[in-house]
Amino acid sequence: xxxxxxxxxxxxxxxxxxxxxxxxxxxxxxxxxxQPASWYIxxxxxxxxxxxxxxxxxxxxxxDNYAKSxxxxxxxxxxxxxxxxxxxxxxxxxxxxxxxxxxxxxSPAKYGILPELAGHDGLVKANSWIEGSxxxxxxxxMKVGAEVADYSITWALIGTVxxxxxxxxxxxxxxxxxxxxxxxxxxxxxxxxxxxxxxxxPRSRFAVLGASLFWAAAACVRxxxxxxxxxxxxxxNASDIADLTLFLAVGIIVGAALVPxxxxxxxxxxxxxxxxxxxxxxxGLSFTHDVWSARAVLLxxxxxxxxxxxxxxxxxxxxxxxxxGSGGAVAMQNFFQNVAMxxxxxxxxxxxxxxxxxxxxxxxxxxxLFAATFWVVLRLPEAETPSTPQ
Length: 390
Known about the structure:
By secondary structure, this protein is mainly alpha-helical. It has two domains: about 1-175, Up-down Bundle (Growth Hormone, Chain: A), CATH 1.20.1250; about 185-380, Up-down Bundle (Growth Hormone, Chain: A), CATH 1.20.1250. Helix content is about 80%, strand content about 0%. It is built from 14 helices and no strands. The longest helix is centred in the middle third of the chain and has 38 residues, at about 115-150. The protein is globular. The two termini are about 30 Å apart. InterPro entries: MFS, MFS_trans_sf. It comes from Methylomonas methanica (strain DSM 25384 / MC09). It is a multi-pass membrane protein. Keywords: Cell membrane, Membrane, Transmembrane, Transmembrane helix, Transport. It is found in: Cell membrane.
């Protein structure tokens, strides 16, 4: 595997650390306000996701038409600008939306550069390293971000700005390569034409829909836990909830580490097994009544999730590099998965407004994930050759 993977891992860790630190800083900022509206935190999640949906036709093409290593720099600078707006007391919904714009640009460049650095044989391993680095950043970022924000919102924001800038500097050590020349015509028309072309094969559909299911479930679980933990575990501050989600993150690291030995690209169909396990663990969480049993279930849920999403990401990147461009494929993935996340979080918000409790929401989410996985897998062939069109 290329030595250039190491600067990417450093840059990704720092950027993801800052992403999660700023999220918990904004949550702390909102929670410190007098009687924050119940819709505000879901709204923060939504404005961040909307950037991925609206910018999908452009960010993938941008990542493929320019050197991805330099696109990562631009994306980190945009994220730093969003954090800077919070320092200037700009409305958090607007500032966090700017951070979302940077994240929307960062994602296709981050995942799109992996096939260039790792090649076919090292792609699943490279993805497991990236996912492990990302989850480690989530682990530490949300904890440190929450703790520093409790001490000082200003210092927490200054720290995130500095981390985004250092991450940008780390990407200067990545090679400068351009995989495609710009295509003429409307980016929106081109994007949806590429979507139609990419989804023509069962393997591609499974990769896109599988990733969408994972992130929709993950986003919804995170929002539900914010309501579930105070009700069941009597956790009443952001630090307690951050501590609880550490176990989910550790599980994803474990799953990402195990999966290269269990689910090679040639056996993508095996990814359905951890998807079913993840659904069952979501259901199982609704039956827990104490902190340690909840932590154990979240650990298993994260392990299953890591084993599910890593080979899905690797397959999508390779298929994208062979067809519409790896950056374009990741942008398309982001479009679908963020639409799915908006729908899942929006549906839960609506359900909560209709007095549906978090326990019932967990049961419903787990059942829907299990059924949706079964439906997606139905038309995936038993045996596949990833490098050959279906």
